[in-house]
Design goal:
The complex is a heterotrimer of chains A (336), B (279) and C (267). Chain A has ten helices and twelve strands. With 336 residues, chain A is α+β, with helices and mostly antiparallel strands. Chain B has helices at residues 34-39, 81-87, 124-135, 159-167, 193-200, 215-227, 260-263, 269-272; strands at 10-21, 24-31, 47-52, 56-61, 72-77, 94-101, 114-120, 144-150, 172-177, 189-190, 207-212, 235-238, 254-255, 258-259, 266-268. Chain B starts with 9 loop residues before the first strand and ends in a 7-residue tail after the last helix. The chains are: A alpha+beta (336), B alpha/beta (279), C alpha/beta (267).
Chain lengths: 336, 279, 267
């Protein structure tokens, strides 16, 4: 399916107008109140250029931090259930880094194995991902250790890669990408053997994820988890910013006549996550919760779905108040 | 293409409330929508999420047998926000039920074998489903032995059925209460469950043991069964972790490589030994 | 920095403390918490102007308490937290050895709450100039503008609770936020849930917040949430004339009755 084309900066700017006219909402990294956040934009000029990636991931566009699952009305001896369908707008996620784009694959897997989650799917089906290859990386990035890379096409419908001579290489990767291109085919030109790698960031692999996964079963009782997690304060920041973390809570909000059931993000790092009403807690120590995070992502998930539940974006490390650098920790585990 | 909302519960009418023990109740639940009743089926060992509308959902097993059609029963203790709200429901009230979820006790594989049930406290309900299921097809199994213990006489659940089983010739029942928990007219045994099992010294050959109870009982009963010659693939138990979705999505019940809501709640001891003790 | 390492080494070697809570070099120049338990590893400790985090939250964490008697590398925020923790009976007067490090690297041992009080009397520290400026800016806004400012900021909150987890005074084992019988505060991070959470937290820190700014630094989405707790704290200071983190004996202003309390709130 994949075809490789080119698009100039001016044509890309023009594409924004075409998308707007076609009723697509465009979300891209842009500055808001001095911070880079994923935000609705109309023009290419609004998109923040010189930045690695926003703090929060784009998972919110398919898996919002709070969403309704159902509502109901109550009367004596009677309950009336109301199903709910989210209202979604066709959306283009513009300028998503390849790591984040790949993150959607993990969400797809969890929300659709065994049974299908219609809330996630309704939103996901309306998303077209226009990825943007990375020309810079930082000390938190480790995409190349978990099967990705600064120019990886995984998860993107179209991947744009900046070219030294200006403009972008445009890889049209999926039907959705094709449909987007077909809105303004004239804006694209055939590629001419351009070097995709020329401007890509260099991210040296720090470990090898299959090797890491193979190590885990033997390390369950190792001291390394307690040692690594000593400074972890057990907040939910790492999981909430993560593009692949999918754990959620279901909460009820009601008065005496009506109510609704809401799904909200949750994190295995929080003490309350596994706490029973009786007071018993199967993972009562922070070290056990830290170990769960690592084992779930790199062991259990990988075993069930065939790859790690981590794209090496480094968001967790950047967001962590106490600098729990995941790349550093995983490398340590790998080298045990 | 309209997809189904997998979080939408069935509406159930509370048809009967039985007070079992302090803070412990049994509900008989009937489907509000008769069509749901016709299409509904489950296996012993499976569980569901019960909603008290306005408060949320709580997880417990289906305590009735699939051989009894048209209703389900559940037994629960009021400990948290949802179970307290459920406990306040009366006959005729509406609650929600999502399920059945999880795997099952492979009773088809147990045909022709002896069955030994060991239960403690509020953990009899999951076994009650199996016991009735087997009693309803009594010819399929050989000896059925039940050892059940609780802290005190008042804490025993299904007292009316225990009396019934006591009288039946086709089931051996030993009921015990912890020392100090007996009343003056108590005719059953006094003592903790594991020593009672030891006294009974059940045969292990061609026998399946199904054990369910508080951690301390499990901890002492499992090694005992192993000394009696039970192998770890002939001992079954059921786990109750905290659950939110029951669908293998929310991550809450994950323990080792297992999602208790999908791969459990029923495990053999052999399988359990493969899991970290995070339950 | 050398003086600090030597002191830590000495204390650990002589068994005077079992752990030194300090800073080590982290990712890209960041200074992060570390827990030195052997004399040999004292070399990990660093001290410079980047050591701004408040380490005092670890003093009440079970994982750290387990090690035995701690020494803690202390900036002024840590010292204020220490006093407030003593005042709230979370720590004994002499349970912690504070190692105050001056700009020139000189280490002063502060073995008791009294010593900490005396040290702070000379250099109290407090809100940074930048934070002071923000506070003043907010104070100048109209009520509506301030409301808009906080609504906009709180909209970003994802309820990760990093602010609560990082706060040295949020040590409660069972926080109101986690209580569901009754459900005092709405759990989801929607507008109401966020507003409820942050107002309740600010109210619980009024008269207790040591103004270290740690919650604001911890917030992944950059909400200056410490400005709210600091505001609550300063308002208690104004009205009751007492400030959290200044004395080891301090009543909880909002929980103690004094005959000279103003009763202007009763109308
Ligand atoms: S675990 Fe960290 S590095 Fe991996 S995908 Fe999540 S946020 Fe990114
Ligand atoms: S690793 Fe960091 S972000 Fe994650 S729970 Fe621990 S302190 Fe919070
Ligand atoms: S740290 Fe920030 S995002 Fe997290 S709960 Fe606090 S204010 Fe909200
Ligand atoms: S209960 Fe949600 S994954 Fe098992």
């Amino acid at each position: 399916m994949a075809t490789t084309l080119k698009i100039s900066a001016a044509s890309l700017a023009a594409l924004f107008a075409v998308l707007g006219d076609a009723g697509r909402r465009i979300l891209g990294p842009a500055e808001v109140d001095g911070r880079i956040e994923l935000k609705a934009v109309r023009t290419l000029a609004e998109v923040a250029g010189d930045q690695i990636q926003p703090v929060l991931s784009a998972k919110e566009t398919a898996f919002p931090r709070v969403e309704r699952l159902l509502s109901y009305r109550m009367a004596p001896g009677k309950v009336e259930l109301q199903d709910y369908d989210p209202e979604v707008q066709p959306t283009v996620l513009f300028g998503l880094r390849p790591c984040e784009a790949a993150g959607f694959n993990s969400l797809d897997a969890v929300f659709n194995w065994d049974t299908r989650d219609k809330f996630f799917n309704a939103r996901r089906e309306q998303l077209t991902v226009v990825g943007l290859s990375c020309t810079q990386a930082d000390d938190a990035c480790f995409c190349t250790s978990v099967g990705g890379g600064p120019g990886s096409t995984k998860g993107s419908d179209i991947l744009l890669t900046p070219l030294p001579e200006g403009g972008y290489l445009a890889e049209i990767l999926t039907e959705r990408g094709e449909a987007l291109k077909d809105l303004a085919p004239a804006l694209f030109q055939p590629a001419n053997g351009e070097d995709k790698e020329a401007m890509l960031a260099k991210v040296e692999p720090s470990f090898e994820h299959q090797g890491l996964a193979a190590k885990l079963p033997g390390l369950f009782t190792s001291d390394i988890w307690a040692e690594q997690s000593l400074r972890c304060i057990g907040c939910g920041a790492c999981a909430f910013v993560c593009p692949t973390c999918v754990c959620f809570d279901i909460q009820e909000e009601a008065d005496t006549k009506q109510g609704q059931r809401l799904r909200c993000w949750d994190s295995c790092g929080l003490r309350q996550f596994t706490l029973h009403a009786s007071g018993h807690n199967p993972r009562s120590a922070q070290s056990e919760r830290w170990r769960q995070r690592i084992y779930h992502k790199f062991g259990y998930f990988a075993e069930r779905f065939g790859g790690p539940m981590c794209v090496g974006c480094g968001k967790c490390s950047r967001a962590c108040p106490v600098d729990m650098n995941l790349k550093e920790h995983l490398t340590q585990v790998y080298e045990v | 293409m309209a997809e189904k909302n997998i979080y939408l519960p069935y509406l159930m009418r509370v048809a009967k409330v039985t007070d079992e023990a302090p803070a412990v109740k049994t509900f008989r639940l009937e489907f509000v929508n008769p069509e749901d009743a016709d299409n509904f089926d489950f296996n012993t060992g499976q569980f569901g999420l019960y909603s008290a509308f306005g408060e949320g959902e709580s997880t417990f097993c289906i305590a009735s047998s699939p051989t009894r059609k048209g209703y389900i029963e559940c037994t629960f203790r009021a400990v948290g926000r949802v179970t307290h709200a459920l406990a306040a429901k009366e006959e005729g009230d509406i609650i929600g039920f999502r399920g059945p979820y999880g795997n099952l006790f492979p009773i088809e594989e147990w045909r022709g074998k002896n069955l030994l049930f060991v239960a403690g406290g509020i953990a009899l309900p999951p076994l009650r489903s199996v016991i009735w299921n087997c009693l309803d097809q009594r010819d399929g199994f050989r000896d059925i032995t039940v050892v059940y213990g609780a802290r005190s006489v008042a804490d025993l659940v299904y007292k009316y059925e225990l009396r019934d089983w006591q009288e039946r010739a086709d089931i051996d029942l030993a009921v015990t209460v912890d020392p100090g928990g007996e009343t003056h007219d108590w005719k059953g045994k006094v003592g903790f469950v594991p020593p009672i099992v030891e006294q009974l010294a059940p045969r292990s050959e061609n026998t399946i043991a199904i054990v369910c109870g508080p951690p301390i009982m499990i901890k002492h009963t499992l090694p005992l069964l192993e000394t009696l010659g039970f192998t770890s693939d002939c001992i079954y138990t059921t786990l109750e972790n905290r659950m939110k979705c029951g669908l293998g999505k929310c991550g809450r019940c994950n323990t080792g490589r297992s999602f208790i809501c999908k791969d459990g709640p029923v495990y053999t001891l052999a399988q359990l030994q493969e899991l970290p003790a995070e339950y | 920095m050398e003086a600090l390492r030597t002191k830590a080494k000495e204390l650990l070697a002589q068994g005077e403390v079992q752990v030194v809570i300090g800073y080590e070099a982290g990712t890209a120049g960041v200074r992060r918490p570390c827990f030195v338990r052997t004399a040999e590893s004292a070399i990990r400790l660093v001290w410079d102007t980047n050591c701004i985090g408040n380490l005092a939250g670890y003093l009440t964490r079970p994982e750290i308490k387990r090690f035995g008697k701690p020494a803690i590398v202390a900036n002024n925020a840590v010292l204020r937290s220490l006093l407030q923790l003593v005042a709230e009976r979370q720590l004994q007067q002499d349970a912690v050895l504070a190692l105050a490090v001056a700009q020139d690297g000189v280490v002063t041992e502060l073995p008791t709450a009294q010593a900490v009080e005396d040290y702070l009397a000379i250099s109290p520290g407090g809100l940074s100039a930048a934070d002071r400026e923000k506070m003043e800016h907010l104070a100048q806004l109209s009520r509506e503008e301030r409301w808009t400012f906080w609504q906009r900021e709180l909209e970003r909150c994802i309820k990760c609770y990093a602010c609560r987890s990082s706060c040295p005074m949020c040590y409660c084992g069972h926080c109101t936020m986690d209580c569901n019988r009754p459900q005092w505060v709405s759990v989801p991070s929607h507008a109401l849930g966020n507003l409820e959470y942050h107002t309740v937290r600010a109210m619980h820190l009024a008269g207790r917040c040591v103004q270290c700014g740690e919650c604001g630094r911890a917030c992944p989405v950059g909400i200056p949430i410490h400005l709210l707790t600091c505001y609550a704290e300063e308002s208690v200071h104004r009205q009751f004339g007492q400030q959290a983190g200044t004395r080891a004996k301090l009543d909880y202003a909002l929980g103690a009755f004094r005959p000279d309390d103003k009763e202007s709130f009763i109308r």
